[in-house]
């Protein structure tokens, strides 16, 4: 369990220094098909560099990277408000329940400070579903897919 860790927002000019770790984290957390890597990471890099997406890292006192969190502010056109979406939360080292709860509380605090009405957490990874349920999230919707050919 981490005893002394800190959450930092990575400013756009520093994204390249974390880019390889971000790509690794997102590919694992989002269970990405390798055929989609180019388009996915091109869009993500553009979003991070233009502050349309935000990257947070969890470092310990020795500046060792433990977690990467990617968020986006999403406008809900039907409700006329915004939500903070956790696109990716990946733990490089084992995360305790306390760690997950602490980082989720940080995300809630961030959402409130940005005037968001909701915090949503998107993932196709069952481990992330467990984390989300552990901190009190509930299913908002489910997406089902049926391959009819092509990619």
Describe it for me?
36% of the residues lie in helices and 27% in strands. The chain is an alpha+beta fold and 151 residues long. The chain has one domain (5-134): Gcn5-related N-acetyltransferase (GNAT) (Aminopeptidase, 3-Layer(aba) Sandwich). The protein has a 5-stranded mixed beta sheet with strand order 1-2-3-4-5, sandwiched between helices. The radius of gyration is 16 Å and the shape is globular.
Question: Which key phrases capture this entry?
Answer:
single chain, 151 residues, alpha+beta, Aminopeptidase, 5-stranded mixed beta sheet, 5 strands, globular
Structure summary, number of beta strands: 5
CATH H level, superfamily name: Gcn5-related N-acetyltransferase (GNAT)
**Sequence stretches where pLDDT stays below 50 over 5 or more residues:** none
Rounded mean pLDDT score: 89
| Number of DSSP helical runs | 4
Provide the CATH architecture.
Answer: 3-Layer(aba) Sandwich
Q: Strand order, biggest sheet?
A: 1-2-3-4-5
Proportion of β residues? 25-35%
* Inertia-based shape: globular
Order of helices and strands: EHHEEEHEH
Supply the number of structural domains: 1
State the name of the first-level CATH class: Alpha Beta
Write the CATH fold name: Aminopeptidase
Biggest sheet: strands, sense, closure? 5 strands, mixed
**Rg calculated over all Cα atoms:** 16 Å
Terminal Cα separation, in Å? 41 Å
Structural class: alpha+beta
